[in-house]
Amino acid sequence: MKALVSVKRVVDYNVRIQVKSDGSGVVTDGVKHSMNPFDEIAMEEAVRLKEKGKITEIVAVTIGGAKNEETLRTALAFGADRAIHIKEEGEVQPLTAAKALAATMKKEGAQLFLCGKQAIDDDANQTGQMVAALLDIAQATFASKIEIDGGKATVTREVDAGLETLEVDLPAVITTDLRLNEPRYLKLPDIMKAKKKPIETVTFADLGVSPAAGIKTTKTVPPPSRSKGVMVKTVDELVSALKAKGLL
Amino acid sequence: MSVERDVMEYDVLVVGAGPAGLSAACRIKQLAAAAGQEISVCVIEKGSEVGAHILSGAVFEPRALNELFPDWKEKGAPLKTPVTADEIYFFTGATRALKMPNLFVPKTMHNEGNYIISLANLCRWLAQQAEALGVEIYPGFAAQTAIIEDNVVRGVILSDMGVARDGTHKPDYTPGMELRAKYTLFAEGCRGHIGKQLIARYELARDADPQHYAIGLKEIWTIDPAKHRPGLVVHGAGWPLSLFGTDATGGSFLYHLEDNTVYVGLIVDLSYSNPYLSPFDEFQRFKHHPVIRQYLEGGTRTAYGARAIVKGGLNALPRLVFPGGMLIGDDAGTLNFAKIKGSHTAMKCGMIAAEAVAEALLAGNPGGEVLESYPAKFKASWLYDELYRSRNFGPVLHKFGALIGGAINYIEQNWFGGKFPWTVHDLKPDHAALKLASECKPIAYPKPDGKLSFDKLSSVFLSSTNHEEDQPVHLQLKDPSIPIAKNLPLYAEPAQRYCPAGVYEVIDEGNTKRFQINAQNCVHCKTCDIKDPAQNINWVAPEGGGGPNYANM
């Protein structure tokens, strides 16, 4: 069984995000990028499933510019067998990404599509769901446990009321949540080997996808900075301060 | 207990992806290609990516880059803002300053033809060039120790991953790999932790003066476009440091880059004597000086960082070679303090070492030897000549202060071309320069206003520093009792103040006091390793990938 794992290149989670002074977006030049942490979890899960003999081949896929090759090399170091780079230098919206990924899924004839529940840059949380819809296959989102048996996947997901367990027929889309696993450290020998694994490059045109611009970003602003606190000396002062704010 | 480690062998291993290491890697590959032979080169870097631990002013002199990549413009090197104006100020007080007439500026401080750059971004570009030439670069892996067999350096062992704070192995424990090479080039930058061990083991500094250091603190600001003057370089001496005295020397800078960005920074010589001095707080109040605040006011601070600077120059330069390896760039100490520039000298030093290594390997040298051709080439290069001319600059400032020392330097540099017939030595190491706390006055620093000046923790936040929290503390105390038993009564434990990242705290616990090390805040500047009066703090590499994540520093 083949699994397709989608990995996105995002600004690293340690980086303090800065908004461009003209409000057209966030600063990405010279900023450290890495694989979306939720996609790392998807990648790790795919490798574990392969180690358990549940899947036989892992194909990593990414959409983006030339620098996305780094992200694919990381996926290959995790243990992907090969990688597909859907090259696009411009902005890619979730629906366009979903169309390209669905087309890749079809082309590859994979049984399992894994990706993070959302990317930490746009927090859209749409792509996995739309891939399932476009392919008209089952989906199980926010997985905290995955078991594969025969043609079915049993997925535990964290919901407000506790844990919910779903059974889906394969092929299916599964999106991964934080507590599913803890991704391993990449070993230097694996990173070295990953340099030699194949990466296939395709374009939207090859996949028959035309980028749609359904969403227009009008403005990006940083969150308002926290205003200074006030030190109160007595309980009475605190009460009157809270009353003045209308909180009591 | 021995662990099974993966082993990989290369012809050349470079420790550190800074200007020296990357230039060396590129040069070796260029020379191998020209000879039609293959030399394998591997570069390892402890930062999470190339550039993540690079912090520099930086006004960049392109001399070495011109030699390494004559076509750097076509290749898109990030040298975007040529210097258009040089201003030098003597800050005589918190609100007063004297602008130095251009006529009296030491020649070494002229910047025509130079560029204001982010050295981190230049390194990222150099890494791309290196990879295109076939160099393998692995960021996120820290060299822990040198492999020394029969007194010959054979490579390095990388730090283990997945070790808990108490030393036990976590489930994801991964032993660090052994990287072996015919020649290992140590390019760790100022006060490299392996370089330090090698200097001691091979007695490389036996004939050199004690090394001297400074701490550089830097911030990046986005300012009002109306105030922005791309290409303007402002240097200063004096307030908040000493102008006439020699107890706290140093200098300041403000550079206007592209895109309404300015770099502002303060360099404090680590030879300062008052243990109450806090380089961080000096820097914060410095920004309130009218010459500086006129640009920053209304702007936004976007990044902060700090790094020690090696500035002993030629007098303090250790021997560069030992069996199987060599020190290059600031790991040796090739910074030219008279120009306050170390990037072009580090690059040139790396290139010279590369030529020695490539020549040897191409001639069939088996590795592991002492490559004397490197120091010989070094001595015959423009780099040596440049460092020779600047050799008195730092010692004179230490001995005579910014004003008088500056005047002597002006005379030596401009009238004698740096060739006074004598050499001034500065034999007191920085850690021995502190006076007792009882002989000094505590310094009352103004509270940060949150607009121009800030507190330490919000500053460290802007360095995007991150360490895996559950790992052994990488700031090791040789004797854990010294901070509270000796440093506190004698020097009011200066680590609390010289650390620019708030790593060291003395915590009151009723009647006792406890020394706390917040290692996860560490920005890898190495100041503690240098300045601790008891020389009790040993900086070792944490898990690879930890430390600051500087973007455009």
What does this protein look like?
The complex is a heterodimer of chains A (248) and B (553). In chain A, α2 (68-78) packs across α5 and α3 packs across α4 (127-135). In chain A, 27% of the residues lie in helices and 27% in strands. Chain A has a 9-stranded mixed β-sheet with strand order 9-8-7-10-6-1-4-5-11, sandwiched between helices. A two-stranded antiparallel ribbon of chain A has the order 2-3. Chain A has 6 helices and 11 strands. Chain A has a single domain (2-223), classed as HUPs (Rossmann fold, 3-Layer(aba) Sandwich), CATH 3.40.50.620. The radius of gyration of chain A is 21 Å and the shape is globular. Chain B is of the alpha+beta class and 553 residues long. Chain B has a domain at 7-70 and 120-207 and 314-389: FAD/NAD(P)-binding domain (3-Layer(bba) Sandwich), CATH 3.50.50. Chain B is 26% helix and 24% strand. In chain B, strands 1, 2, 8, 9, 10, 13, 19 and 20 form an 8-stranded mixed β-sheet that branches. Chain B has a 7-stranded mixed β-sheet with strand order 6-5-15-16-17-14-18. Chain B is globular. The model of chain B has no long low-confidence stretch (mean pLDDT 94). The interface between A and B is medium-sized, with 23 and 32 residues. Chain B: It is an enzyme of class 1 (oxidoreductase). Chain B: Its EC number is 1.5.5.1. Chain B: This is Electron transfer flavoprotein-ubiquinone oxidoreductase. Chain B: GO terms for molecular function: 4 iron, 4 sulfur cluster binding; electron-transferring-flavoprotein dehydrogenase activity; FAD binding; metal ion binding.
Instruction: Spell out the CATH superfamily of chain A.
Output: HUPs
Q: Which whole number gives the mean pLDDT of chain B?
A: 94
Euclidean distance between termini CA atoms of chain B? 41 Å
| Largest interface: pair, residues per side | A-B, 23 and 32 residues
Global shape of chain B: globular
